[in-house]
Task: inverse folding
């Protein structure tokens, strides 16, 4: 029995919702990413490869806020964060402030496997990438016309200074991507990748690359990837909180996620969502925002792809 | 009833142990930092101010691996990380890769109070510091002859490349600093500050500035600051793990810390320690290394200062 779930971010949709064409595009893209992960699991591949493959596909797709098509920092450049974790041995790799590496999730995995470290940032992470044979791409590779327009819209009301950008940070963007999987050997893995929030300060780190906040996996409990207002997920250590509820509180996965999202986060005024899979291959996907792009499939069952 | 505990790092002592003079220096320094925090609590001050004051004192003291006297990166420069958290409202601030700000813990607190973010790194964090009136100091301010010698010793066996530094990373340095406090109003706070590991890659982030890993506080459960092999504390989300054991598992603080340090971390091959205080003002300090510099005091009780 294998299971895989992916998300393409939680947040608000544009006024009037997405056009039917746009919905088709998102569904098709989610389907392709899900299939990229599922294909590996179908061949008895491991959960780690599956979440990496799914997130790589979403990073490469300009529709999502990760890799190409990521949102822009206040200075108009792109900085990317990603993390991956293996539930069998609690190995983890994370990178933040990546400007020149096409697939941050692949770099995160390399940090996990080829460095004694868990978390590398900025120029240091990219120096590690150079040594490990990653090709550099120009920062412009990641920038799409849509994201430039979004930054312009954000900065327009004020001068070039920060207040408008800061105020707008309360609105979580739709588009962080992530994946969780259980493979046929019972191994769990989680991966998350993001460009952060439109207009963010350079050097700002959200929850996505932080092990325990945005990404966590432990074969004994569950694998989790979150999306939403990253600062809140950092403060609540959200991904590990779900695992701890299972481990120490005897919660069922659905109850743990429900309590965390529908009750605790909502009460705190935080918005977002998460996907999780437990050691039995049960999948739970919850959010308290108007929408969360998501898809999942389990062995022998039809895939589901949902937007709202 | 107030309570405060501080640590100056867990790890191995030099061969033959510390000289009596050196022991006196460390004890005196720990005593001064403890008193800096206690003085505020004695005047019914808040836990947040107390942990900030204690950690600031330790950052300013070149004996410890934080602020002035921090260990050096492989390129011979200093990069500092710090985090602070308020247990009353789960606010948190963290900085990493700081090169020019004298007291990273103060900058972390400013991030918590004056930015919409939790976690800022590198040049972005220092740009925020500039705007918020922090003075810059040259990177050389932090560098002491002892730390230069330690880096030279680490790099000597190999050429200037990384393998020696990498191998030596298994040996945790003594010296990360931290504080936890409960004030007379029942508010909890935690703070941690570090220079990381001798010979680290620039851009490497350990557990200290990561909310949930090295630093966590929640009035409902406990405040925790950790020290040791940061990569392991990141992977086990150690600080939040203690809080979750209390919250969801009904553990007593001493049992939670004992299980986490003496059993789980030791079994995983990880080395380090932590200090914690719960909402009743109970203090627990545990480590599985040869030594942990530590001190604590509770209202109306004598202070204890210990090295081994």
Result:
């Amino acid at each position: 029995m294998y299971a895989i779930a992916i998300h393409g971010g939680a947040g608000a949709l544009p006024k009037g919702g997405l056009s039917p064409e746009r919905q088709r595009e998102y569904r098709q893209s989610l389907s392709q990413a899900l299939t990229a992960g599922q294909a590996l699991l179908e061949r008895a591949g491991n959960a780690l490869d599956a979440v990496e493959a799914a997130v790589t596909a979403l990073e490469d797709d300009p529709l999502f806020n990760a890799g190409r098509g990521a949102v822009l920092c206040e200075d108009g450049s792109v900085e990317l964060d990603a993390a991956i974790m293996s539930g069998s041995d609690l190995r983890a790799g994370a990178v933040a402030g990546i400007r020149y590496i096409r697939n941050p999730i692949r770099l995160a995995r390399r940090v996990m496997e080829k460095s004694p470290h868990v978390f590398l940032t900025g120029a240091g992470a990219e120096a590690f990438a150079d040594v490990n044979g990653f090709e550099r791409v120009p920062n412009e590779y990641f920038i799409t016309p849509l994201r430039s327009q979004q930054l312009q819209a954000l900065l327009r009301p004020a001068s070039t200074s920060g207040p408008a950008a800061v105020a707008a940070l309360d609105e979580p963007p739709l588009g962080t991507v992530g994946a969780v999987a259980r493979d046929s050997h019972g191994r769990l893995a989680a991966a998350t990748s993001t460009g952060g929030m439109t207009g963010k300060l350079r050097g700002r780190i959200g929850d996505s690359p932080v092990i325990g906040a945005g990404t966590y996996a432990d074969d004994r409990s569950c694998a989790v990837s979150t999306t939403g207002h990253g600062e809140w997920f950092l403060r609540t250590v959200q991904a590990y909180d779900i695992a701890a509820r299972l481990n120490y509180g005897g919660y069922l996965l659905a109850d743990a996620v429900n309590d965390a999202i529908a009750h605790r986060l909502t009460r705190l005024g935080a918005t977002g969502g998460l996907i999780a899979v437990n050691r039995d291959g049960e999948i739970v996907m919850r959010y308290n925002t108007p929408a969360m792009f998501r898809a999942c499939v389990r062995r022998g069952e039809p895939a589901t792809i949902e937007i709202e």
Q: What stands out?
A: The longest helix of chain B spans residues 20-42. The longest strand of chain B covers residues 3-11. The domain at 3-306 of chain B is CATH 3.60.20.30 (Glutamine Phosphoribosylpyrophosphate, subunit 1, domain 1).
